[in-house]
Amino acid sequence: MQENILSNGFSAPRKTWRDKWEALSLSQKFALTSSVVLLGGMLVIGAWVAEKIETSVSFNTAVATAFYMDSFVAPHAQDMSTQNSLSHDQQIELDRLLQTTSIGSRIASYKIWAPGGLIAYSSRKAIIGKRFPQTDNLKLAWAGNITAEFDTLVDEEDAQERAARVPYLEIYSPIREKFTGRVIAVAEFYLKAELFEQVLFQAKLQSWLLVGLVTIVMLSLLFVIVHSGSRTIERQKLVLKKRVFELSDLRNRLKNASRRTTELNERFLRQIGADLHDGPAQLLGLALLRLDSLKSFFSAETQIAEAEKDDLKIIKTALDDALVDIRNISSGLVLPELDGLTLTEILIKAVRTHQHRTGTTIKLKYDNLPAFVDKSLQICLYRMVQEGLNNSYHHAQNAPSSVSATYIDGNIEIIVSDEGSGFDPATIANSSDGLGLPGLRERFESIGGQFEIRSAINRGTQLIARLTVTDLELQDDE
Q1: What confidence tens digit (pLDDT) does each residue in 57-68 have?
Q2: Least enclosed by CB within 10 Å: which of 101, 297, 358, 405?
Q3: Cβ neighbours of residue 9 under 8 Å, at least 6 residues apart?
């Protein structure tokens, strides 16, 4: 078989039977499956009905023939009650009766069996006095039953009839003693069955046609119903595909919008941090300088009360604390320069910045991370490490903390954990203030990721973020 070749030089993949089957519609699958099932059922039922017809017609014909023949044969076979043979006169009388009666013209040959498989009389004189194996039908006849077989002739004593190549109905009929009803012999007739064969063929043909017609009607009606349902399903599938495409497009647009929003938020936070640093922080610094000047002036030139000196100390301390807080807030709002850094370098930078600011030691593990990723992912991961470590520092009482990052099967997983006292995650599960851990959750879910908090009282805390790389645009390292 010649293989199709595509324009790019690659061979087209051959469809397997399974692929071809899956490509069929529901109505086509039903038509093929139901055809096989109903055809098998039709063959089984048709064969069973034909067998029953043959058995019934054969038996009815055999009974009618047996009773008719018994009225002629039984009176001349009564000596079989005391002996296993017929006299010469009785054989002549049987020959004459069977040759001169109307039914005799339809009998090809006949036998009278004595017990033990002995042939006491036959139209074939050569086998009289011979013994043959007893067949099942012969045994049933000795038990008082009328039996019949159509066109089988496989027994040893049927050699001559079989050689004639003519259809026969082989009939076994018990011969009973006149007064006691005891079976004293068995008559076997070979009825010529050309007409019987034609009638049987017509009956079988009609039964097959009827079964086939009913099967076709059933299959047609069921196919109409299933085809109608299949068309409805196909229309619904097209509508669903359209909706899925629209939702997928909308999801992608929302994710892109969320990424742009993340970057815009960072710009605003950077701007707010710069404004705090260049505005209130500078003014507070100036106020502290002026306050120091006033303090020197008062100390050298004038005498002031101790209470006023304390007030100056309180004001200066408050301004110092406010300046420190504003600078800390400003530095927390402003991200370091992340452009050009790999994901590993970004994680290292976040951990080192926290260690430098807090004087703590953080254990960092990472494995097989992609080098350069989308900017929104960089921001989310940095903020997650930053927020997670800040939470551990403030709430875990300086308990050991760690950060781990892995990349497995297309998924990036970041875990920030501590061995602190822990908390009940349900207390913040429904929080909507948009800050802290709820804010992290919204960040990751907005770009298609997952964020999970695992914690319990006295069991420590784990913050777990997962993102699928295929949902993100991996950047080139250029």
Answers
A1: 777 777 777 776
A2: 297
A3: none
Residue 244: half-sphere exposure toward Cβ, Cα within 13 Å: 6
Residue 86 and residue 73 in contact, taking contact as beta carbons nearer than 8 Å: no
Is this model's pTM higher than 0.70 or not?
no
Burial level of 308, CB count in 10 A (0-12/13-18/19+)? exposed
**Confidence grade of residue 275 (pLDDT, cut at 50, 70, 90):** low
Closest CA to 387 of 282, 269, 271: 269
H/E element holding 241? helix 194-278
The strand pairing partners of 183, in sequence order, are 176
User: Measured between alpha carbons, how far is 341 from 348 in angstroms, rounded to an integer?
Assistant: 10
| Distance from the Cα of residue 55 to its chain's centroid | 47
Asked whether residue 132 carries a pLDDT value surpassing 50, the answer given is yes
pLDDT value of position 232? 82
Q: Please state, in angstroms and rounded to a whole number, the distance separating the CA atoms of residues 467 and 474.
A: 12
Question: How far is Cα 91 from Cα 98, in angstroms, rounded to an integer?
Answer: 11
Cα distances (Å, whole numbers) of residue 419 to 173, 174, 389: 101, 102, 12
Q: Across-strand partners of 406?
A: 367, 413
The string of pLDDT tens digits covering residues 343-360 is: 888 889 889 988 888 888
Q: Report the pLDDT value the prediction gives residue 307, as an integer from 0 to 100.
A: 60
Q: In angstroms, what CA-CA distances link 343 with 270, 351, 354, 381, 388?
A: 21, 13, 17, 9, 17
The per-residue pLDDT for range 448-477, each reduced to its tens digit, is: 788 888 888 888 899 998 888 764 455 544
d(CA 450, CA 432): 17
What is the C-alpha to C-alpha distance for residues 15 and 3, in angstroms, rounded to an integer? Answer: 12
Query: Which of the residue ranges 211-215, 329-333, 429-433 would you say has the lowest mean pLDDT?
Result: 429-433
339 burial level (CB within 10 Å; 0-12, 13-18, 19+) = exposed
Query: DSSP H helical segments within 396-460, as ranges?
Result: 426-429, 436-446
Over range 11-27, report the average pLDDT.
Answer: 69
Strands across the sheet containing 168-176: 118-122, 107-114, 183-192, 168-176, 147-150
Say how far apart CA 189 and CA 121 lie, in whole Å: 12
Residue 169 CB-density burial (10 A; 0-12 exposed, 13-18 middle, 19+ buried): buried
DSSP letter at 450? E
Contact (CB, 8 A) for 467 and 411: yes
| Pairwise pLDDT comparison (78 vs 157), residue with the higher score | 78
Q: What tokens does 119 get?
A: 């042939």
Quickly list H helices, 302-404: 306-333, 343-358, 375-395
Contacts for 311 with CB less than 8 Å, ≥ 6 apart = none
